[in-house]
Amino acid sequence: MKPLPRIDTARVLRTPEDRFTRIADFPYVPKYVDIGGLRIATIDEGPRNALPVLLMHGEPTWSYLYRKMIPGLLAAGHRVIAPDLVGFGRSDKPTAKSDYSYANHVAWMVAWMQAIDVKHATLFCQDWGSLIGLRMATHSPERFDRIVLANGGLPTGTQGVTPRAFKLWRAFARFSPWFPIGKIVNSGCAVKLSDSEIAAYNAPFPSSKYEVAARLFPTFVPTDPDDPERAANEQAWEVLKQWHKPFLTLFSSRDPVTRGGDKIFQKLVPGAASQPHTTTRGAGHFLQEDKGPELAKTISDFIAATPVQAS
After folding, report:
1. Distance CA 262, CA 150 (A)
2. Helix H or strand E encompassing 268
3. Distance between CA 252 and CA 231 in Å, rounded?
């Protein structure tokens, strides 16, 4: 695991709290942990001794993405943990491009996981939440009882053809002078967002200075055999190929980027055998928006049906 990067804190932005005060449908108060000089925000709700569900968001969202799932998971008796990645949500945002990399984000989130001492967790991960979350789980498999993967993956850069939809998104993020984050999230939903929901996704980014991570993330996805994270992701795959704990895929039918990617996990991960894998109909890339309550129930049912003996 790469050591925590050294960050010049003078070049770090923190979104003003008043940007979040008008978000009516997200009442959760964040907790903060300092990791390598950066403040990472986390929603942490439910009983401390309950089985935790770790919700990892992706690009360019934040923990607000999970507002439709959190109530159902809490009602089922779970502890719900939803961090904001560095550069997103209420977490700190370095402004230097050189501070960001795939490896740095994994290092930050592994250190965060260790700092709050995640144990016996069910990981739910989507989009970049899976590229980072699966690395967290394979780094510390003893901390996780099961994994639920939705619309995500763990690319090594050797899989062959990159989906055209992703190529277009990567080019847009890199070159477009216009980067309306709320509308970008809206474009990935089958059920369109309201104006207030779009505003909530825009809230963490008062200006373009705060958008460095959101712009860079698409360029960090391994799509070439020479990618610097190929070896680390291949090593993570070796752990997944020996993963016998429960592993469930919940991909959606209307995601042009990840559609069909669930099959490789079902084939290669032993813990995926005989699980009730589901294709979520009528949902886009951000299925948490389109089918949040249904996903929460599916996760709760999966946990109840797959008890893991404490180690």
Report:
1. 8
2. helix 262-268
3. 29
Collect all residues with Cβ–Cβ distance below 8 Å to 106 and sequence separation of at least 6. Answer: 1, 2, 132, 135, 136, 139, 232
Residue 311 has pLDDT above 50, yes or no: no
Which of 57, 78, 105, 285 is catalytic? The answer is 285
Q: How far is residue 167's CA from residue 189's CA, in Å, rounded to a whole number?
A: 19
Closest CA to 247 of 130, 115, 108: 130
For helices 230-240 and 128-139, give the axis angle rounded to 10 degrees. Answer: 60
C-alpha 64/C-alpha 32 separation (Å) is 16
How confident is the model over 105-143, as pLDDT tens digits? Answer: 999 999 999 999 999 999 999 999 999 999 999 999 999
- Tell me the C-alpha to C-alpha distance, in Å, between residue 105 and each of 4, 110, 153: 9, 8, 16
For residue 255, indicate whether it is catalytic. Answer: yes
Q: Are 84 and 12 in contact (CB under 8 A)?
A: no
3-state secondary structure of 79: strand
Amino acid in position 254: R
- pLDDT above 80: residue 161: no
The answer to whether residues 213 and 179 touch, using CB atoms and an 8 Å cutoff, is no
Cβ atoms 41, 84 nearer than 8 A: yes
In the three-class reduction of DSSP (H, G, I as helix; E, B as strand; rest coil), residue 11 is classed as: helix
285 is catalytic: yes
Strands (E) located in the chain: 12-13, 31-35, 38-45, 52-56, 79-83, 93-94, 121-126, 144-150, 247-252, 278-280
Please give the domain boundaries of the chain with CATH numbers for all domains.
9-305 (3.40.50.1820)
The catalytically annotated residue of 84, 92, 227, 255 is: 255
- The length of the chain, given as a count of residues: 311
Q: Which of 127, 145, 262, 290 is catalytic?
A: 127
Burial class (CB in 10 A: 0-12, 13-18, 19+), 267: exposed
Reported as a single tens digit per residue, the pLDDT across 239-267 is: 999 999 999 999 999 998 898 999 999 99
